[in-house]
Amino acid sequence: MLVPFSAMATRKKDTRQFAVRPFVCRVGRAMLVGGFLLLAGCYTVPPRGEISWIKYAPPPPIAAEMPRPRRNLEVFDWVWSTVNAYYYDSSFRGIDWPAARARHRAAAEAAVDEDQLYRTINALLGELADGHTFARSPRTVAELRDRRWVWIGLEFAALASSPEKLVVTYVWPGGSASEAGVRRGWILETCNDLGARTYIQDRRFEVGQKLACAFRDEHDQPHQLELVARPVEHPSVRAVRVLAGDCVYLRFDEFKYATTQWLYEQLQAHQGTRAVILDERYNTGGDVAYLEYVAGLFLPRGQELGVFTKRGQPSETVNSRRPLFAPRFRGDVAIIVSTSSASAAEIFADAMQHFRRAVIVGQATAGRVLNAYQVALPDGGELSFSVRDFFTSDGRRLEGIGVAPDAVIEYQLAGVRAGQDPGVEAALRALRPSVFGTSR
Predict the structure, then answer these.
(1) Domain positions in the chain
(2) pTM for the complete prediction?
């Protein structure tokens, strides 16, 4: 899951589930909720640092007076040992893990400060080529808050006419790009003197890292901007619009409790609508618990979505769930995805596509579905590492591959600058027979 990390759920009791509206009276409500808790099954999200299926103990804090070289090795060795013991792949994705330790340990010991140490640690972890496995320094941990990650605050799409150039499709409030005046429709041509697509995509940034970005605005005027990576808040976004032809557009950017309840309420409020468009372009995932319940709003109960596998542990099946008596939406569905769609968003889109419950439009998803945990490091930093792999119900692996759309969206510069949304347009085209009542 860049992209921001999201820990998946383990099976435990949890009474916090999304509400079911009463049909008649309070008695009916009580019966519904009671039946939901008894028959639908429950999940809960583990606290940060808890790994329920392994015997993990947080490290003791490092003494303040410990010399820097020894301090560095305490942190480095803890990272290496934790990954060595608990990483999901016992073959370490083909990497000789002890040899990797030997390659980086001297540089870690010689690091003169926190930033240099964590660059070395992330060089070690980077050999795994796993976007879920990385380390955050104590300073970065202190700066980050829930739903914040280190970024310049832009979303991009490749242009059909110039694939190596990226057009800005969304500007997150509070990022350095927004403050610098970057707008939707600008073209990012280069970043740090490299091709924009080569440099930006699948790259993790450090707090304070400077990016020399060359843009062209809507008037084809050049802009040389120095953008600084920093924690950018990712506010929860939920949007609804009624489109022509009795089609409802729903955008949601996370799989969480509030989002699941909101989706249920929107489907209830628009009962009888012919089609729904679900926009997952900026959805980076969430909790397995709510992935299962979102899937249950569209799929039969108990439909297998896939399987999580753990090193040396029994596999865990992910199934669609739905509260007792809660109806599922039976109209047509289109899902819009992008390269930013990750984790639970990918699993949901794949299942809906596999069971022919939705048409997928957009661009191939991120291919980041490994389940990672975050644990404390001795100096107050934080280690994220993958502990579970995911396979679809028919045995396919999504990690590093993603979900291929049924219809690919091509972003045309003129259309983006004119305010057109090719994702919604493509979804409406895919749904045209149901939305406009024509035969298939």
Answers:
(1) 1-126+236-440, 148-233
(2) 0.75
